[in-house]
Amino acid sequence: MYIILVYDVAEKRVNKMLKLCRKYLHWIQNSVFEGELSEAQLTELKYKASKIMEEDSDSIIIFKSRNEKWLDKEIIGIEKNTTDTIL
Description:
With 87 residues, the protein is of the alpha+beta class. It contains 2 helices and 4 strands; from the N terminus they run E-H-E-E-H-E.
């Protein structure tokens, strides 16, 4: 499934969350990641993220789609990090 993950965590936990998310997804903008994950990978990512965050003050939002082709992505302004692969 195709995932867009957005997090908002306290500054002291940002680096840990960033490193975790980069293991599973592509960084596209500050605190925003996207990519394909299996159900098992998503479950693992959510479990590990829950160990980093404090649920009473931090948040993660996960958008799911069956496939990236079902999303129209429009970028206005500068693209922070492209997910295109050059071969």
